[in-house]
Amino acid sequence: MGFESSNGTASPKQLKFLIYGRTGWIGGLLGKLCQSQGIDFSYGSGRLENRPSLEADLVAVNPTHVFNAAGVTGRPNVDWCESHKVETIRTNVAGTLTLADVCREKGLVLINYATGCIFEYDSSHPLGSGIGFKEEDTPNFIGSFYSKTKAMVEDLLRNYENVCTLRVRMPISSDLANPRNFITKITRYEKVVNIPNSMTILDELLPISIEMAKRNLTGIYNFTNPGVVSHNEILEMYRDYIDPDFTWKNFTLEEQSKVIVAPRSNNELHAAKLKQEFPELLPIKESLIKNVFKPNQKTAAA
Asked: Which residues form a coiled coil (predicted)?
């Protein structure tokens, strides 16, 4: 079975994408991107954990590539997974593996949107050092059950030569009304921690994931913009571009731990592998200004 990378990009007419995660944020944005690029696509109707339903989708759609943007993140947040462990395993582990296996049988590349929230700063990757976790590094954050399941499935998926795993972190888009948007979340919090993190600007990176499918890229990629940005830096940009009267309060990780069930991951991911494949990839702060704040600008930026 060949999953060799090809840099000759197929024309939109030859592509047919099957996307899982119709009701999710990334799944919805992917559909819009396909429409704007003239790429034929269908949403999967099968449940990830139901193998016959996935096989039926592949027969019905006959796709050239499959995208998995489905998964359990929990509502309103990942704390839900702490009390719904079996449901989380069913979708995030059993379901994702089943989809990868069905795609492999059909010789199809699976683009799998995963998470980079499986690492935390440590003595080898200290906060502020600029030393990011690489694709081959072993996850060291198991503070939340959600992250634990994601690390498990990523490790198993390494054995599937047809899977492209994209580690998304703290996703941000130009839609500042979307409650899933990291910026929208932190502007609504009563208090925020102030820690530099790697993040994913969807407006820039989702089109890149479509390009990765066209190139039949596989393996793991840290799917974040290069560099880190802190909560306060984002909120300062928000104040400067969007709302000059906006104010916020900080609190410590210790104080935060009293109001959440499971700890949250903070890390820097090394983005050189993605940048090498896509040299046009912008550093996180530049991407924030170009793709998120400038398009939404309401004030004269300081």
From this structure: none
